[in-house]
Write a structure and sequence with these properties.
Distance between the termini: 32 Å
GO molecular function: methyltransferase activity
Helix content: 40-55%
Number of domains: 1
CATH architecture: 3-Layer(aba) Sandwich
Structural class: alpha/beta
CATH superfamily: Vaccinia Virus protein VP39
InterPro entries: Methyltransf_25, SAM-dependent_MTases_sf
Protein name: SAM-dependent methyltransferase
CATH class: Alpha Beta
CATH topology: Rossmann fold
Pfam families: Methyltransf_25
Organism: Pandoraea bronchicola
Amino acid sequence: MTASINHAQAELWNGGSGSAWVDNRVTLDQMFVPLARFLVDRARETAQHLPSGRLLDVGCGTGGTTLALATALGGQWQLTGADISAPMIAVARSRAAHARAAVEFIGTDVQTHAFSPSRFDLIVSRLGVMFFDDPVAAFANLRAAARPGAALHALAWRCPAENPFMTVAERTAAPLLAGLPPRVPGAPGQFGFADRAHVTNVLTASGWEDVALTAVHFECAFAQADLREYASRLGPAGLALARMAPHERAPVVDALVDAYAPFVHNGEVRFTSACWHIAARAPSI
């Protein structure tokens, strides 16, 4: 892994949060299938005009979206997935080897990684671009790694009010867990790109052109049988629960599971993801 200046996120995703995502990778991949399909469709649109090329998946996690992109684009495209989380990259590499997919996965901080200049024809991200502590520097680095005219397509969460499912656990846990950290608007994290003007300014300041944000919605679902593990492991509440003794944790987890009841239907947990589709283009020479 290359040197990282994003110390807080590196610690988070190489620690408890990374472990939680690895352990829940099947559930999370299933949950975010509609988002992956959206990015696959954007990649296919690019491939119609460019039959071969190089693609970078930013914040690739355990590789589910990257591998779906590889299947959709075929062997004429070279794919690279990058993530700051060493545990998730290890799983992604194992999945690629099992699938015999010629995909490169690198454990690195995209904000500072020394990519080859003008290497990528397409850069995508499924919920992976909101965690930079210096987003302008990060997107400038990505722009330098993009070929002239290359496209960027990223998905990021809109605000918490538009994504009530995503805050059920922390809203329920707040009165039950002392010291649960509050969300800081605009800070690196899940909702770090919620504000349209902020995102537009970041991409413009980092040298991207034709910047456009479009509100998109995805109907997501996963098995109800996986809800308890999801509720007790992911997000700020999951990190706080991990520090508690089992006998203290159990009643809090029971309360979290009960709080998700409005989203449970016929053995599935269903909810709407409210995201931005962030599109931009690297300057042409």
